[in-house]
Amino acid sequence: MRKEGRKDRCTILSEVALESLKEYWSEYKPEKWLFSGAEDGRHISTRTVQAIFEQAKEKASIRKDVTIHSLRHSFATHLLEGGTDLRYIQELLGHKNSKTTEIYTHVSNKALGKIISPLDTMDFKEMKE
Predict the structure, then answer these.
(1) Angle between the 68-81 and 46-59 helix axes, to the nearest 10 degrees?
(2) Helical (H) or strand (E) element with 4
(3) Element spanning 79, H or E
C-alpha cells in the first residue's frame, strides 16, 4: 500500500521483487522505513529515488528518455499484453474512470503483431469436403 495523490493504492508484488526485498531487509535491517532517507526518521525522498533511477539508467546504458512514471506505464502495458483484463489494470492503477486506463495503456505494435486473423484459423480443406 502506498499513497499517491492522497489515495491508497494496492498492487501486486512479484516473487522476484519479494526475494530482493528480503535480501535487502536482511542486510540493512531498516527500523522505521524500508528505505530510510538522509534525515533521521524520514523516508527516502522522491528526488533521491529519481537520482537512483537516473544512475541505474546510465549504468545500464539506457539512452531512451524514460522516467519513473514510465515504469508504471510499462507495468500496465505488459499486463495488458499478457492478457490481464483492463478492469483489473484499472484497479491496480487506481483509476476511477476506465477511460483513463484505456488512454494510459496504449496498444503496442508488439500486441498488434500477435493478432491472428480469424481467416488464418479456419480449416478451408474441411469446408470443401
Answers:
(1) 70
(2) strand 2-4
(3) helix 68-81
Tell me which residue range forms the domain holding 99.
Answer: 67-107
Q: Which long-range contacts (CB under 8 A, 24 or more apart) does 88-92 make?
A: 91/10, 92/9, 92/10, 92/11, 92/12
Separation CA 38–CA 118 (nearest Å): 58
Q: How far apart are CA 112 and CA 116, in angstroms?
A: 9
Q: Please check whether residues 97 and 73 belong to one and the same domain.
A: yes
pTM summary value: 0.69
Q: How far are the Cα atoms of 13, 45, 88 from residue 7, in angstroms, in the given order?
A: 19, 18, 17
Residues 11-41: tens digit of each pLDDT: 899 999 999 999 999 999 998 999 999 888 8
> What is the DSSP code (8-state) at residue 121?
G
